[in-house]
Inverse folding.
């Protein structure tokens, strides 16, 4: 789940602990094992949703399914009630960038570009992931946007290992997006994830001097989530105070994984191919 910078700043910081450094929590082996379970729940739900989406369903239908499955697996929805958000998923269609509120009025149609973002809270830790689904047959341009968004995520993940820097992965994402003719949304970022849904550090998808270039350490857990627009990188927020849309009505796509930093590389905790 993405969140605006000013809202992220209101998010409670991680509980102080000996293994924290500069506000970034390093998870213990026991905590990582729990996060594997919360992330597996998220991956399972998203994999199931990707298989059941069809034209005529509403985003409220998907939300009800996600909440039911998360609770059946012994967790609670991370998003529901978070800063007043009413859904268990964020469901954003076409020009909706992030934070779409599930609704019985939002009917899914053939050709839609549907983003489904969800999280699960299990035994004190969160998992967080997002997928973009091509509903039926989409246009070639939409298909390319979805493909490049997913590729950009993995370009960033491939840079992850202890000793690397956050801007290494940000640069890899930005370069892949730009060479394919799309724009990176800069108003939303990835984040640390663990005891809290949003933790330090902010995980940018473009090169910036706005934040320190954090050196990665084994045991960090990051939600990496590039968001691509087909047109302008800029967004605006609707009157519901949650749904962000593109300013030019262009399509948007997003993918996200919860990723563990290891000494030699990374582990994708929300890997849907393993559930």
């Amino acid at each position: 789940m993405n969140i605006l910078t000013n809202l992220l700043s209101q998010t409670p910081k991680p509980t102080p602990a000996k293994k924290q450094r500069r506000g970034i929590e390093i998870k213990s082996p026991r905590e990582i094992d729990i996060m594997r379970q919360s992330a597996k729940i998220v991956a399972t739900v998203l994999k199931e949703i990707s298989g059941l989406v069809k034209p005529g369903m509403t985003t409220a239908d998907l939300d009800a399914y996600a909440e039911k499955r998360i609770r059946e697996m012994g967790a609670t929805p991370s998003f529901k009630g978070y800063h007043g958000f009413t859904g268990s998923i964020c469901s954003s269609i076409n020009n909706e960038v992030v934070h779409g509120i599930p609704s019985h009025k939002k009917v899914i149609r053939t050709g839609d570009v549907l983003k489904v973002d969800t999280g699960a809270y299990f035994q004190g830790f969160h998992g967080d992931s997002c997928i973009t689904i091509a509903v039926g047959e989409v246009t070639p341009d939409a298909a390319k946007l979805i493909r490049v968004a997913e590729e950009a995520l993995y370009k960033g993940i491939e840079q992850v290992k202890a000793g690397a820097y956050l801007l290494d992965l940000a640069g890899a994402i930005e370069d892949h997006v730009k060479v394919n003719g799309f724009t990176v949304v800069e108003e939303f970022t990835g984040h640390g994830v663990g005891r809290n849904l949003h933790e330090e550090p902010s995980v940018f998808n473009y090169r910036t001097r706005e934040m320190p270039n954090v050196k990665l350490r084994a045991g960090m857990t990051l939600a990496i989530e590039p968001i691509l627009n087909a047109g302008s990188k800029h967004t605006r927020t609707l009157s519901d105070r949650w749904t962000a849309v593109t300013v030019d009505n262009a399509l948007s796509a997003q993918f996200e994984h919860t990723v563990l930093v290891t000494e030699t590389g990374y582990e994708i905790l929300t890997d849907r191919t393993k559930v």
